From TrEMBL:
GO terms for cellular component: cytosol. One of its GO terms (molecular function) is protein kinase regulator activity. This is Uncharacterized protein. Transmembrane segments: none annotated. It comes from the Eukaryota. The keyword Repeat applies. Keywords: Repeat. The keyword Nucleotide-binding does not apply. It comes from Hemiselmis andersenii.
Length: 304
């Protein structure tokens, strides 16, 4: 297991990583309880939500900007900004007069306007500032890329364990949930694909296999704790997720491990009336089902 989690395993080349993830999937099939503590220790740093939270919106914009370009060209700052002189008199060449006749003057004006829109060549001073900012943004881009790569690696490891032993991973869903959902909230869509893929694998490890709408809705409410931050389509997906969850349960309460996984979705529906009274009532009844008075149901501790 140590080799699989090391520099010649998941932290090696793309080929080494693929082989290591396959090995973890196999190990999970027959020794999950032995492997799980070591895996969580190895990837907890990769899935650190605080490092993602430390990234600013500007950092993400810089990361998304192609190399060799500045994230904001119009903000090029230097001590000197050259002024482009305007042509007061539009000159018409003999060739243009011959080719375009009466339209020659209009054609010349268009050429002059096009020339005016062209960016002037940078001075030496501007070029130095430009290159300095390029170097600075390249450093930001490298930092964001490293955080993204680490988070995606950690998520891929968790997904492999889920694939390797769905039944056994049910007992570990609370620990995995505590790593994945904070990352979704902090990710700024940086690793949205990885979080969604892992959430789908986690949903398949529940006591009742959850429909695809449920992990999708869980991702949305983890990413946007407030209803006002959801788009109309996302809000519809959240409502559909609650309905699908209740249908998947079939009227029976979930074991505590499964309930902890899906509770953020139910809590969101309860705390945000704009989801609609029908969906809110479904969520309230489902929560109450796991916290009935006099029932020694461990899920009550999750509800608080």
């Amino acid at each position: 297991c140590g080799a699989v989690l090391g520099e010649f395993g998941i932290r090696g080349s793309a080929f080494d990583r693929a082989c290591a993830l396959g090995a973890l999937e196999s190990l999970a099939g027959y020794a999950l309880d032995d492997v799980m503590p070591r895996v969580l220790e190895a990837v907890s740093g990769d899935l650190d939500a605080e490092s993602v939270c430390a990234l600013t919106a500007k950092d993400i914009v810089v990361w998304a900007t192609p190399r060799g370009q500045l994230a904001r060209f119009e903000q090029l700052e230097s001590g000197y900004v050259p002024q482009q002189q305007e042509e007061k008199n539009v000159k018409i060449s003999k060739e243009d007069k011959k080719l375009y006749g009466a339209l020659a003057k209009e054609f010349a004006a268009e050429k002059a306007a096009k020339k005016k829109d062209e960016k002037p060549k940078m001075t030496k001073q501007e070029e130095e500032v430009f290159n300095a900012r390029l170097a600075e943004e390249e450093g930001v881009r490298a930092t964001v890329a490293a955080i993204k790569e680490s988070a995606e690696l950690g998520l891929a490891v968790l997904s492999s364990l889920c694939k390797g032993n769905r039944k056994g991973m049910h007992a570990h869903l609370p620990a995995v949930s505590r790593l994945v959902w904070p990352l979704a909230r902090a990710a700024r869509r940086l690793v949205a694909g990885g979080v969604k893929a892992t959430a789908r694998e986690m949903a398949l490890c529940c006591s009742c296999r959850l429909s695809e709408q449920v992990p999708e809705a869980l991702f949305l409410v983890s990413e946007s704790p407030s209803y006002s931050n959801l788009t109309p389509d996302d809000a519809a997906n959240v409502r559909g997720g609650v309905r699908a969850l209740v249908a998947d349960m079939g009227g029976y309460p979930l074991p505590v491990e499964s309930f902890e996984l899906v509770f953020p979705l139910l809590r969101f529906a309860v705390e945000n009336p704009p989801v609609g009274s029908e969906v809110q009532d479904l969520a309230l009844k489902t929560v109450a089902q796991h916290a009935s008075p006099g029932q020694a149901w461990p899920s009550a501790g999750i509800i608080g």
